[in-house]
Amino acid sequence: MPDVLVLVDHDGERVHKSTYELLAAARRLGNPAALVVGLPGTAARLRESLARHGAVSVYAAESTEAAEFLATPAVDALELAARESPPAAVLVSATTDGREVAARLAARLDTGLLIDAVDLDSSGVVTQIVFGGSYTVRSQVTHGTPVITVRPGSFEPEEHPGEAAERTIALPAIDPAASARISARRAAPAGDRPALTEAAVVVSGGRGVAGADGFEVVEELADALGGAVGASRAAVDAGYYPHQFQVGQTGKTVSPQLYIALGISGAIQHLAGMQTSKTIVAVNKDPEAPIFALADYGVVGDLFAVTPQLTQEVAARRA
């Protein structure tokens, strides 16, 4: 079977869940080959977990410059690997950085690019949700090696323990004049909750939360469920919650097992970022809110009356 090249998303010490999802998707097309771009020694730390999730080989594209520039090292590494041994496809997580890497790689290889895939079959046909969630389409690359970005949460990680062959890619020197250099890094505030794009449960608040203090009920329900907290663009723009938690077309795209929308009307911009969630629950006092057309379960009522009761019931059942 041909290799399917997967760009590994990691923090230097841990592989992100979205990469395990990509490895599961890659198995539908061939043998998953994981490519790690980072500082020297990174691939060695990550190889065992990648092999456990089905990677049959691990490319190490490492240099001291790898962490100093945006996108360019990953694009260089993927291009070299693809030209050395043409894969059946290249899979990249549909994150902000991933989309840029995929687009630049497709341009360099003069090949087809498919973005934001939510499903993939063995023939290389992908399912996409386009135009802000208005349409579901099926697409296939007909020229060159397909470069595909996959929406996080679209596939379930699978364990296929085995040995992963080691491969090395020598990264070329980077031209600082033609690349964006990272001048500083600042860690985003992180608590005990799971990452928004990796959480199995997401509880989001919207304009109906009515203020920053109102997000306490959102956080309490999320904590009771062991989930992450999200926010609509309206809530973020109003200053109710930090921007990094925005769910939507201009924020993060999520696809959890359970998505709870509190006080969110359901604008197209927001639906585009969460409509592939497996189960959607909405609480809104407006019975005509568009979110109810998408929700699996809807509650018409005051979120400040409904949500604490739900939180208490969840806590009681988990006790």
What does this structure look like?
This protein has nine helices and 14 strands. With 319 residues, it is an alpha/beta fold. A nine-stranded mixed β-sheet has the order 7-6-5-8-4-1-2-3-9, sandwiched between helices. It is elongated and about 60 Å long.
Topology:
Layout: E1 3-7, H1 17-26, E2 31-38, H2 42-52, E3 57-62, H3 72-84, E4 89-93, H4 96-109, E5 113-120, E6 126-130, E7 135-139, E8 147-150, E9 165-169, E10 201-205, H5 215-225, E11 228-231, H6 233-237, E12 258-262, H7 268-271, E13 279-284, H8 291-294, E14 297-300, H9 303-318
Parallel strand pairs: 1-2, 1-4, 2-3, 3-9, 4-8, 5-8, 10-11, 10-12, 12-13, 13-14
Antiparallel strand pairs: 5-6, 6-7
Helix pairs in contact: 3-4, 5-9
How many helices? The count is 9
Give the percentage of residues in beta strands.
15-25%
What structural class do you assign from the helix and strand content? alpha/beta
Instruction: Provide the residue-averaged pLDDT.
Output: 93
Gross morphology is elongated
Q: What is the element string, with H for helices and E for strands?
A: EHEHEHEHEEEEEEHEHEHEHEH
Q: Kindly state the number of beta strands.
A: 14
Regions with pLDDT < 50 over 5+ consecutive residues? none
- Main beta sheet strand tally, sense and closure: 9 strands, mixed
Proportion of helical residues: 25-40%
